[in-house]
Amino acid sequence: MRTIIVVLFQVSFLTPFYGQNFNESALLNLKQNRSENVNLHGPIKSAYWYYTYVSDTLETSIPIEDAKGEIMYFNRNIGGAIFTSFDNKGRLIKRIQDYGNSMDLKKNPLLEKYATTYLYEDRDLQQKENIRLLSYPKYPVFNDYQLVKQNFLYKDNRSQNNYKSLFGYTYLLDDKKRIKQEKFYLTSESDKFIIKEEDLITKTDFIYNNKGNLIKQTIKPGAFGKEMPFTAMDTESSYCTDLHFSYDYDELGRITKMIFFGCGNSIQTESYSYDTNENTISKNEINFNSSLRSKVYITKKTIMYYDKFGNIIHKQYVTDSPTQKLIGFMYQLPEHTYYKYKYDQYNNWYQCDIYMKGESGPITATIKRELEYY
């Protein structure tokens, strides 16, 4: 089987065509990544968060420590992995999801055996950083699928082996120098930036409207991808022939709806509302038709409200019926949860108070976050 080394050509969009200005970098910002629930600003070097308080007066029929564990688990999406670190180019280099137990997120020693590490090739960054797009999708849009990803070697210390895997991405541009196609490869047991064609997972074609906005991405499996489901957003699908993402826009060219569609159904839909003063996303209505969704979403519809920095300030589970009990694993969760933050000079939060008995309190739990900058 043929082995190829991926080399991309540099492109630069310094002039407009047809009145469209492609001035924004298409490179995925790993410091603001919805798939990882990471939302960090400024010259961040590392972020480490943990619970410092969970109420002892929870109303529960299960053991109190089990109830505390569920509160920590079902609110973890405000911070993503408990520890993340970045290089001075903003690339994720280390991630620790938890301490080996996602139900106990109080402060404990950070152990390397739970870490995943990421290695990059500067040449790949140089080849991809000049690719441009019309408008960078605002966080918390699920923008991973629309943007340019860097190749990286991935090592998970939690596994029983000692090898790395290569995640590789190649891009084909159209005659207007927009992304026309993305190919994603996964090469196991690799410590080199060499992509093998037989390791192709998916091939995604990009379709634009006459305004230059991406409106659809069709997804096909590669030889290796056929062996696994397609996992995206907070769910997954089989590789049906109609598998795709689609996007709607408002008159300002901002994404207002994202649909993950496959096998004749809308699998997951997100609808975004914008704050008129701040030009930021203030509300996201998340709807699932699939039961194969992240456990955090205990109802088919969940509404997230955000502040101007992109952090969740209100989570609302919308019950499927008037009699539905909002059960996590065993603990009954409230319909509304509120989050209040304290911010530093870079608009990153360093304390979050969680309210699960109404917006005015009492405080149910508190998270602290240690932030280090370059």
The topology string of helices and strands comes to EEEEEHEEEHEEEEEEEEEEEEEEEEEE
Task: Evaluate the radius of gyration.
Answer: 21 Å
- Tell me how many strands there are: 26
Alpha-beta content class: mainly beta
Strand content: 35-45%
Shape: globular
How many angstroms does the end-to-end distance come to?
44 Å
Indicate the mean pLDDT: 91
List key phrases describing it.
374 residues, mainly beta, two-stranded antiparallel ribbon, 26 strands, 41% strand, disordered N terminus
Write a brief caption for the model.
By secondary structure, the chain is mainly beta. It is built from two helices and 26 strands.
Notes on the structure:
The chain is mostly beta strands. It contains 2 helices and 26 strands. The protein has helices at about 65-75, 120-130, and strands spanning about 5, 25, 30-35, 40, 45-55, 85, 90-95, 115-120, 130-135, 150-155, 165-175, 180-185, 195, 200-210, 215-220, 230, 235, 245-250, 255-260, 265-275, 280-290, 300-305, 310-320, 335-345, 350-355, 365-374. It has an 18-stranded antiparallel β-barrel. Strands 1-13 form a two-stranded antiparallel sheet. A hairpin with a 5-residue loop joins strand 18 and strand 19 (about 255-260).
Write the layout of secondary structure elements.
Blueprint: E1 3-4, E2 24-25, E3 32-33, E4 38-39, E5 44-54, H1 64-74, E6 83-86, E7 92-96, E8 115-120, H2 122-128, E9 132-133, E10 152-156, E11 165-173, E12 179-187, E13 195-196, E14 200-208, E15 214-221, E16 230-232, E17 235-237, E18 244-249, E19 255-262, E20 265-274, E21 281-288, E22 301-306, E23 312-318, E24 336-343, E25 349-355, E26 365-373
Antiparallel strand pairs: 1-13, 2-9, 3-4, 5-6, 5-26, 6-7, 7-8, 8-10, 10-11, 11-12, 12-14, 14-15, 15-18, 16-17, 18-19, 19-20, 20-21, 21-22, 22-23, 23-24, 24-25, 25-26
